[in-house]
Design a protein that fits this description.
heterotetramer; A mainly alpha (305); B alpha/beta (318); C alpha/beta (333); D mainly alpha (280); B: 318 residues; alpha/beta; eight-stranded mixed β-sheet; 9 helices; 23% strand; D: 280 residues; mainly alpha; MetI-like fold; 12 helices; 69% helix; 0% strand
Chain lengths: 305, 318, 333, 280
């Protein structure tokens, strides 16, 4: 188990390095940074000054190394736009994004798991078809468009919920639902296929031959095995949701990390773009690591080795 | 030895070590699947290899077919090193018949293409291929009309006949049969065994016959090797082995053959409840944890193969 | 066997059992069998003959899409046909237990051996988990497992196939069943382990007075284990007899042919081909009449397409065929 | 399963029909459009669709805030969606299938590298990186196609790798080696035909995903640049008017939804018909 942990952490570290490289490379893709920072009216002299000031005149590997070193110590650079540390900006906006992501995941799990179980228990029935239709429809629904439709329906026409902002909890209702909607289809399919496989397995036949009650067969023996991948995937789904919040936050004008990212991309605020990409990627990597660990902790076959 | 033909298969101290759990991100485990095996099969003979699952008999078959390179040792086929042959030459000399008649035929190709595959690999043209495929199908008891079908449209026995046809279409001298009948019902098993015996006689084939079914091996083989955890622990002519086995493991194997003779009951094979693990071979005699007659020195002293009464045995007590 | 006292009533009595699958396939076509107390009854046949399906039908464990019907299905005097699934579940694992072919997949990978064994006892007999675990340890020792305490805390993947099958057997015995249905319990195991498991079953039967319905395709196992034998072909029992009778005088042409197919060390000759049955098993759908073996039978006659009689060779030995009981001797002559 | 077989066939058929209609619209767009999709008519702005009061037969689906014919823009938008979908599937399919098949077939070191690439790719938040790239490099159709193609190969690689590994261990592959076939012959004639049905299903999923992502990027103003009539961009441009005329976001939104639904239904149908893996 310890060996597994160490190996998995090493892999995460390697991936992190890759992400760092990509993240650094991203800002260099756009051409000469100094020119973009200086703006269209700048003279050649201004550009040269900026180049010096931001250290852009040094060779690329040196720039990369110094950037990695400062990033590791929490210094993600200063925003050109807000004239603040990018890390401070992210920290201030993180609670909004986290609330949104966790609410979305909770809603998704509460809807997807029972429906998935129900579909599997009635495999091939009309109910199963109906539930799977929800999954297909959900998969086809563009989340930003769904957000707009919900705003029109519940915000404008019915007037039940605010159309934007985060003044109170009601501001989170619609965005959480939209975010959940994007995760429900895959969680539901996974629960269903896991349960279908489990229910058709030899050990369920054994459980039936032992005369166990239907509840014990489904909830204890089948669900335990079907739930292992679902729990693990939930961690990854949370990662998807946090990075997906970029779209939802801009639809609902929620000033979270995603909104910050979008804003800084549209306004060429490179240090913040870099910082947000890096920050979300690190969370993403940690969540995938968590998923693997959860999987290993839940499955005795992996736990032992 | 100068005038005598070389043995069809000669194996010299062959070992195969697999690295399990490959990759930079998982711990490696070394499995000694085949661990120093030597024997020779004369041309036209039928040599049986028996043992439990995990004893290395299927790995041995794959080594002889050239599907894996051995980790050490030499394999000579028809007097020439297998490693020196190119794939076409090897294919003309030695061919396989596998256990599972379902996974051994490509489900997306017609019987014609499956049987003709070795010919295609030799660069033989379509017309010639078609002629020889039809001839071979008829030879193994199928009809020319089946050439256009897919494997899914055939029964298990028919599929195994297709596999035999594929193995024989290049007229190889040697056929390696890896559990060719163990996935089949007894009535079909008998058909396939009869067909193999008949083809062997007619075409002068050398057979390497791998099986866990001792009754089948006794019926078809001239000589038998018993494998345990990667080593041949006993090797003898079939009659000799079945009359009086020298190795305690062979005796246990023979005791567990249940012939259809009512009233004999189930013998005690005396092996206990431990089970061999090829990734964790015990020191000393590798059979000692299960051996009913093991003594103290079996734990530490590794037995070497010896000739006892015209048979090769690897046991300190034989 | 023949020397024993007559049995008052069989523990399991099956009459006219039929199983149909969704696609119209008739897997079991009206079979009858009686398993006596303290005896091993072997149901033997090749793959697809309906032997496993029959056993599952008795336990009411058929997969969805399969339907069973029977003239009579009685266990220990109780009629099983009208029982609800809930009532049937109360019997399963308690009075009648079942073990399966694949020991590798028949245990739940997520729970320990002890937990899976204890829950059977607690389900049917109540009591504390500790008491159930004690019982489990005792039974593990009885099925020949050394260090039962250690094994109880292990997960199935930590055990070899042979050990898992022993665990399955011990689990089946948790509530002292009167009938054990064993569906090809040794097919997935090595020959040496097979002999050990079968010997264990024999010992347990003698000690506990267990009735065993043993399903197998292996005539060697039948000969060594069975008191009585029913031979199945294409969904019908074509011959049934005591084991001694059946092997001494196989009378249905299928049984006869099957026995000729098996190589026996020291008896079958190497230079003589084995007997074999030509052709393959037909697929039986609704409206099929006559003997299902007639296409492969060397003795088939026009009448074989009609209703086939059940003939008695000697009391307790019957076969479903038009041929007279002494046809093998006649054709040999 | 069997009971609703006809229902499944019907939904797969519906999916195929939708995809076919959109494909025809995309290919023959110049012949089908009633108006020039780029022509502005400031006298006819925000004309509602024909079924609403104020709508007329001249603009069946109405006009946008610049008076451009909505139906014509929608048909041209189909071009962009289909182009994005097909081009992304081809690019990402080539990358993913090559990596997956090589890793699965050769194993060992090659597979270690492939596994690392897959894990690394899965650890990178897709939409964010796509946004950053498009935002930084500048938005154009080519950049969107290239970015999505370079990012969406992971599922192809995962499925190709696992199915190749399964097939590789089967005895017919061993028989082909023993028959003297070459490595490339075995890879191309024995392995790939037996995994291709799984990959077809993945292709439909990725196509749907690519179309949705392009719409999301364009919606955020970082995808296809105006005045190209991308459906996502149409929704974005109409956003400010939706409070008074909700239909302006409904028309392109429904088009997008129906197309993606059609692709998914077709994919599900193919999965059933070809017997591909369920959780691909």
């Amino acid at each position: 188990m310890l060996k597994f942990l160490a190996r998995r952490a090493l892999l995460a570290l390697l991936v992190m390095l890759t992400v760092l490289t990509i993240s650094f490379g991203l800002t260099r893709l756009s051409g000469d940074l100094a020119i973009s920072i200086a703006g269209p009216q700048a003279t050649q002299q201004d550009v040269e000054m900026i180049r010096k000031a931001y250290g852009l005149d040094r060779p690329l590997p040196v720039q990369f190394a110094s950037w990695v070193v400062s990033a590791a110590s929490g210094d993600l650079g200063r925003s050109y736009l807000y004239h603040e540390q990018a890390a401070t900006l992210i920290k201030a906006r993180l609670p909004i994004t986290l609330t949104l992501g966790l609410c979305g995941l909770a809603i998704a799990l509460v809807v997807a798991i029972p429906l998935g179980i129900l579909a599997a228990m009635r495999e091939g029935s009309l109910l199963d078809r109906a539930i799977m239709l929800i999954a297909v429809v959900g998969q086809a629904m563009p989340s930003f468009w769904l957000g707009l439709v919900l705003i029109i329906t519940f915000g404008l026409q019915l007037g039940w919920l605010p159309v934007s902002g985060n003044d109170d909890w009601r501001g989170y209702v619609l965005p959480s639902i939209v975010l959940a909607f994007s995760a429900i289809p895959s969680l539901m399919r996974l629960t269903r296929s896991g349960m279908v496989d489990a229910l058709a397995s030899d050990y369920i036949r054994t459980a039936r031959a032992k005369g166990l009650s239907r509840a014990a067969i489904v909830l204890k023996h089948a669900l335990r095995n079907a739930a292992m991948p679902v729990v693990a995937i939930s961690a990854v789904q949370l990662g998807f949701m946090l990075s997906g919040s970029i779209v939802i936050e801009s639809v609902f004008a929620l000033p979270g990390v995603g909104y910050l990212g979008w804003e800084s991309i549209s306004k060429n605020d490179f240090p913040v773009v870099q910082a947000v990409v890096l920050f979300l990627a690190v969370i993403f990597i940690l969540l995938t690591l968590l998923a693997d660990l959860l999987n290993a902790a839940l499955d005795p076959r992996l736990r032992a080795s | 030895m100068s005038g005598a033909p070389p043995p069809a298969i000669e194996i010299r101290d062959v070992a195969k070590i697999f690295r399990q759990g490959t990759g930079a991100f998982s711990a490696a485990r070394f499995v000694r699947a085949v661990d120093g095996v030597s024997f020779a099969v004369p041309a036209g003979g039928c040599f049986g290899v028996v043992g439990e699952s995990g004893c290395g008999k299927s790995t041995l078959a794959r080594l002889i077919l050239g599907l894996h390179p051995p980790s050490s040792g030499d394999i000579l086929v028809d007097g020439r090193r297998l490693a020196d042959m190119d794939r076409r030459e090897r294919a003309r000399l030695i061919q396989p018949v596998f256990q599972d008649p379902f996974s051994s035929l490509n489900p997306r190709r017609a019987i014609r293409d499956i049987v003709g595959l070795p010919l295609a690999a030799q660069g033989i043209g379509r017309a010639e291929r078609e002629r020889r495929v039809v001839e071979m199908l008829e030879r193994v008891g199928l009809t020319a009309e089946m050439a256009g079908r897919l494997p899914a449209q055939l029964s298990g026995g028919q599929r195994q006949r297709v596999a035999i046809a594929r193995a024989l279409i290049l007229r190889p001298r040697i056929v390696v049969c890896d559990e060719p009948t163990s996935a089949l019902d007894v009535s079909v098993q008998a058909q396939i065994l009869n067909l193999l015996a008949e083809l062997r006689r007619e075409l002068g084939l050398t057979l390497l016959f791998i099986s866990h079914n001792l009754a089948v091996v006794e019926h078809i083989c001239d000589e038998v090797a018993v494998m345990y955890l990667g080593r041949v622990v006993e090797r003898a002519a079939t009659e000799k082995l079945f009359h009086a086995a020298a190795h305690p493991y062979t005796r246990a194997l023979l005791a567990s053959v249940l012939t259809p003779e009512p009233g004999l009951g189930i013998p005690d094979v005396g092996l206990g409840d431990t089970y061999p693990d090829p990734a964790n071979v015990p020191p000393g005699c590798r059979f000692h944890p299960r051996c009913p007659i093991a003594v103290e020195r079996c734990r530490s002293e590794t037995p070497l193969p010896r000739m006892v009464d015209g048979r090769q045995v690897e046991c300190l007590l034989a | 066997m023949s020397g024993q006292a007559p049995h008052p009533a069989p523990i399991l009595a099956v009459e006219g059992l039929r199983v149909r699958f969704g696609g119209g396939t008739q897997a079991v076509r009206g079979i009858s069998l009686a398993v006596n107390r303290g005896e091993t009854h072997c149901l033997v046949g090749e793959s697809g003959c309906g032997k496993s399906v029959s056993a599952l039908a008795v336990m009411n464990l058929l997969a969805r899409g399969a339907t069973r019907s029977a003239d009579r299905l009685a266990f220990d005097g109780t009629d099983l046909l009208p029982l609800s699934e809930r009532q049937m579940a109360r019997l399963r694992g308690d009075k009648m237990a079942m073990i399966f072919q694949e020991p590798m997949t028949s245990l739940n990978p997520a729970y320990t051996v002890g937990s899976q064994m204890a829950e059977v006892r607690q389900r049917h007999r109540g009591g504390t988990r500790a008491a159930a675990l004690d019982r489990a340890a005792e039974l593990l020792a009885k099925v020949g497992i050394t260090a039962p305490g250690l094994r109880l805390a292990q997960y199935p993947h930590q055990l070899s196939g042979g050990l898992r099958q022993r665990v399955m057997i011990a689990m089946a015995l948790m509530c002292d069943p009167q009938l054990l249905i064993a569906d090809e319990p040794t097919t997935a195991l090595d020959v040496t382990v097979q002999a050990q498991i079968l010997r264990l079953l024999l010992d347990l039967q003698r000690e506990l007075g267990l009735a065993i319905l043993l399903i197998t395709h292996d005539l060697g196992i039948v000969a060594r284990m069975a008191h009585r034998v029913s031979v199945m072909y294409a969904g019908r029992v074509v011959e049934h007899a005591t084991a001694a009778e059946l092997f001494a005088a196989p009378t249905h042409p299928y049984t006869h042919g099957l026995l000729d197919c098996v190589p026996v060390p020291g008896r079958t000759r190497r230079d003589v081909p084995l007997g074999s049955i030509p052709g393959t098993v037909p697929r039986i759908t609704a409206g099929f009449t006559g003997c299902a073996f007639r296409e492969r039978c060397a003795h088939a006659m026009p009448v074989c397409a009609g209703e086939v009689p059940l003939r008695e060779r000697v009391p307790g030995h019957a076969y479903e065929c038009f041929l007279p009981a002494d046809w093998p001797q006649r054709s040999a002559a | 399963m069997r009971r609703f077989a006809s229902l499944r066939m019907a939904s797969a058929g519906l999916g195929a029909l939708i995809v076919l209609v959109v494909l025809i619209a995309a290919i023959f767009a110049p012949l089908l459009v009633p108006h020039d999709p780029f022509a502005q008519d400031l006298n006819a702005r925000m004309v509602p669709p024909v079924w609403m009061t104020g709508g007329g037969p001249d603009h069946l689906l109405g006009t946008d805030q610049l008076g451009r014919d909505y139906l014509s823009r929608l048909i041209y938008g189909a071009r962009i969606s289909m182009l994005i979908g097909v081009a992304t599937v081809i690019t990402s399919g080539l990358i993913g299938i090559t990596l997956g098949v090589l890793g699965g077939f050769f194993g060992g070191r090659v597979d270690d590298v492939v596994m690392f690439l897959i894990t690394a790719r899965l650890s990178i938040p897709l939409i964010l990186v796509a946004l950053a790239v498009v935002g930084l490099v500048g938005s154009s159709l080519t950049v969107v196609v290239m970015t999505l193609g370079l990012l969406l190969w992971d599922r192809f690689a995962v499925v190709a790798r696992t199915t190749t590994m399964q097939v590789r261990t089967l005895d017919y592959i061993a028989a082909a080696w023993a028959a003297g076939c070459s490595r490339s012959y075995i890879l191309l004639r024995e392995v790939i035909p037996n995994i291709v049905h799984h990959l077809v299903v993945v292709a439909t999923l990725e196509m749907a995903l690519a179309i949705l992502l392009e719409a999301a990027l364009s919606f955020l103003g970082l995808g296809v640049p105006p005045p190209l009539p991308s459906w996502g961009l149409m929704i974005s441009e109409a956003k400010d008017y939706m409070y008074f005329s909700p239909w302006v976001i409904m028309v392109p939104g429904v088009a997008l939804f129906v197309l993606v639904l059609g692709i998914n239904l077709l994919g599900d149908g193919l999965r059933d018909m070809l017997g591909a893996t369920r959780d691909a």
